[in-house]
TrEMBL record, chain A:
<dbReference type="InterPro" id="IPR027417">
    <property type="entry name" value="P-loop_NTPase"/>
</dbReference>
<keyword id="KW-0813">Transport</keyword>
<dbReference type="InterPro" id="IPR003439">
    <property type="entry name" value="ABC_transporter-like_ATP-bd"/>
</dbReference>
<dbReference type="GO" id="GO:0005524">
    <property type="term" value="F:ATP binding"/>
</dbReference>
<dbReference type="InterPro" id="IPR008995">
    <property type="entry name" value="Mo/tungstate-bd_C_term_dom"/>
</dbReference>
<dbReference type="InterPro" id="IPR017871">
    <property type="entry name" value="ABC_transporter-like_CS"/>
</dbReference>
<keyword id="KW-0547">Nucleotide-binding</keyword>
<dbReference type="InterPro" id="IPR050093">
    <property type="entry name" value="ABC_SmlMolc_Importer"/>
</dbReference>
<dbReference type="InterPro" id="IPR013611">
    <property type="entry name" value="Transp-assoc_OB_typ2"/>
</dbReference>
<dbReference type="Pfam" id="PF00005">
    <property type="entry name" value="ABC_tran"/>
</dbReference>
<feature type="domain" description="ABC transporter">
    <location>
        <begin position="4"/>
        <end position="234"/>
    </location>
</feature>
<dbReference type="Pfam" id="PF08402">
    <property type="entry name" value="TOBE_2"/>
</dbReference>
<dbReference type="InterPro" id="IPR003593">
    <property type="entry name" value="AAA+_ATPase"/>
</dbReference>
<keyword id="KW-0067">ATP-binding</keyword>
<protein>
    <submittedName>
        <fullName>ABC transporter ATP-binding protein</fullName>
    </submittedName>
</protein>
<comment type="similarity">
    <text>Belongs to the ABC transporter superfamily.</text>
</comment>
<comment type="function">
    <text>Involved in beta-(1--&gt;2)glucan export. Transmembrane domains (TMD) form a pore in the inner membrane and the ATP-binding domain (NBD) is responsible for energy generation.</text>
</comment>
Length: 347, 293
């Protein structure tokens, strides 16, 4: 049986549906991310797990027991808020100790656990600081220590890193992952940052407009996106339409003058999706012309005009000479690098 | 008007000339009358000779020697403190509830709370006078029907009545001050405390109250200083016999016509209020320095 289970959970605010038929089974120790643009219902779902919102329908179970009827104060979940929501009138140690005080943990044990929690997040020695006198990253750590010190059954993270600058965010990602691995705490992260979701999670739930678009490992959602939304939301991608034709008995994908052997089981109009870093320049393939090339340090970014529309290509800066702007090129990729979806009739 | 900050002297001159009209107005209508009042308090006065522009300490000695004046000032202080306490006890929950209301209701009740400010304080106090009115007043009838009291309580011409009417008149200032503090609160903080296992009462006591305390205290300073210098409410509810500092000064000026003594009372009230307000402000700032750096 799964540890945390959401069974067709939905939430509507009046006529507006925020979350629809959300079903997910999280196993113990797993790190799951809810990924999507703002307004996709990811935070609403998290708030329902936390108990700050009641689901309109559906069930949430923790270790087989219904969670919806339990008030948030008794759920025993650790939550890190986007704003950190630290208690500004308490010191870092008092903030962390609050949850233990509420649990009537003895003073001695409390002190021990507070100092080890602060040490865990690298804030030993900051016990007597007030939050307003700490940097964003330090406040973030206090919030994490405060959520972890109560040994929560599930750790809920609501965009915890979005207020940090890029450098610090990367450091915190690595640290967060390490702490989570070491403690083995089941964790749910809400984020709109696809890189954050991919680098931290065991599984990603991609959401859009209140619906689940895809659930899978980071590799799965990146390399086999289930929908155009997933393909476009997770990193850059090139998409063009093609049809499956039988040319001399062999099924082939055809788009203009370009064609490639069609994989088995594909028919009719399809959308071809290829990641820009999987494309290289060759002698034969999709013909095009480079309209611009941008140097980005460790890689080059090319924009090309092809007969199937504009395309972007990313090449590692590996010391090889790269084609100039205006050069005629052919875009080549492996059959395994493209993912195909049946084209929607309306599209 | 931070002239010192300007490095360029022409900038400073421009700033000064822009501030000049306001400065002149301030000097003309605040500083000069104030200085004249202070000077007046050192002048002599006699029943038949009127005001004599000499420098004597007669009025000040009288105020500090005669226990009659001490009684007035203590009453002023007592009434203001109790009115402040009442506004805090009722105003804080009022503001908290108001803050938790949704959209339209919030607007409506905010109007209900601020509404009385649109009515003259004299009219409001006369309303209280009608409610209190002797032994058969509405307030007494209601309290006796509910069973809170056995015999009628005297409200008119008593400190009790004065405090109740003042607390009501000052309530909007407390509610607004606390409400402002509540709006600065991170709405997630209460959720954070809930998620850590705190009951809703604990959340209010341990998390919300300490954070809005500066708002409550600044509301208290406003209410206290307005109550201590209030004139209309003590004059109507207290009558001509139960005086506070403000009504005392008024009577000296307009009934006894002893302007110098009235001026001394007014100046003493001003000094006491400034000392109390500045002192408590400094205390509050020191106390909450850590939190609001």
């Amino acid at each position: 049986m799964s540890f945390l289970e959401l069974d067709r959970v939905g939430k509507s605010f009046g006529p507006n549906t925020a979350v629809e038929e959300f079903s997910l089974a999280v196993s113990k120790g797993e790190f799951v991310s809810f990924l999507g643009p703002s307004g996709c219902g990811k935070t609403t779902t998290l708030q329902m797990i936390a108990g700050f919102l009641d689901p309109s329908h559906g069930a949430i179970r923790l270790e087989g027991k219904d969670l919806v009827a339990v008030p948030p104060a008794r759920r025993g979940l650790g939550i890190v808020f986007q704003s950190y929501a630290l208690f500004p009138h308490m010191t870092a140690a008092e903030n962390v100790a609050f949850g233990l005080e509420m649990r009537k943990v003895s003073r001695r044990e409390r002190e021990e656990r507070v100092s080890s929690a602060l040490a865990l997040v690298g804030l030993a020695g900051y016990e007597d600081r007030h939050p307003r006198r700490m940097s964003g990253g330090q406040q973030q750590r206090v919030a994490l220590a405060r959520a972890l010190v109560i040994r929560p059954s599930v750790l809920l993270l609501d965009e915890p890193l979005s207020n940090l600058d890029a450098r610090l965010r990367e450091d915190m990602q690595i640290e967060l992952r390490q702490i989570q691995r070491n403690l083995g705490t089941t964790t749910i992260l809400v984020t709109h940052d696809q890189i954050e979701a991919m680098s931290l999670s065991d599984r990603i739930v991609v959401m859009s407009k209140g619906r689940i678009e895809q659930i899978g490992t980071p590799q799965q959602v990146y390399e086999q996106p289930a929908s155009a939304f997933v393909a476009q939301f997770l990193g850059k991608t090139n998409e063009f339409s093609a049809t499956v034709d039988r040319v001399s008995g062999q099924p082939r994908l055809v788009a203009g003058t370009w064609s490639a052997p069609a994989p088995a089981g594909v028919a009719g109009p399809v959308t071809v999706s290829v990641r820009p870093e999987r494309i290289s320049f060759g002698n034969a393939g999709l013909a095009g012309r480079i309209t611009s090339r941008i140097f980005q340090g460790n890689h080059w970014l090319f924009q090309c005009d092809t007969e199937c529309g504009p395309a972007i290509v990313i090449r590692q800066n590996d010391g090889q000479s790269q084609p100039e702007q205006g050069a005629a090129v052919h875009l080549v990729w492996q059959a395994s690098d493209m993912s195909l979806r049946a084209a929607r009739a309306a599209a | 008007m931070s002239v010192t900050a300007a490095t360029d002297s022409s900038d400073a001159r421009a700033g000064l000339s822009l501030a000049l009209p306001a400065l002149m107005l301030f000097i003309g209508v605040v500083v000069i009358p104030l200085v004249m009042t202070v000077m007046l308090s050192f002048h002599d006065w006699g029943q038949y000779k009127g005001i004599e522009p000499v420098f004597i300490l007669k009025n000040w000695i009288e105020i500090f020697d005669d226990p009659y004046y001490a009684e007035m000032f203590w009453r002023t202080f007592r009434v203001a403190v109790l009115a402040t306490l009442i506004t805090a006890v009722f105003g804080v929950p009022e503001a908290y509830i108001l803050n938790r209301m949704q959209g339209r209701w919030k607007g409506l009740f905010l109007l209900v709370i601020i509404g009385p400010l649109l009515i003259s304080v004299v009219a409001r106090t006369l309303g209280w006078a009608l409610l209190f009115g002797g032994n058969n007043g509405l307030a007494n009838k209601l309290l006796m029907t509910v069973g809170l009291i056995d015999s009628p309580v005297r409200f008119m011409f008593t400190e009790t009545g004065m405090i109740i009417a003042l607390a009501h008149a000052m309530m909007p200032f407390m509610v607004l001050a606390v409400w402002t503090a509540l709006q600065r609160l991170d709405p997630q903080v209460e959720n954070a405390a809930l998620s850590l296992g705190a009951g809703s009462l604990t959340v209010v006591r341990r998390i919300v109250l300490p954070q809005i305390m500066p708002g409550v205290l600044s509301g208290a300073i406003i209410v206290f200083s307005l109550s201590a210098s209030a004139f209309a409410t003590p004059a109507i509810i207290g009558g001509r016999r139960l005086k506070v500092a403000a009504t005392l000064a008024y009577d000296e000026f307009l009934n006894t016509l002893n302007w110098p003594l009235g001026a001394a009372v007014a100046v003493l009230l001003l000094i006491a209020l400034v000392l109390i307000v500045v002192g408590s402000n400094a205390l509050i700032e020191r106390r909450y320095q850590e939190m609001f750096r």
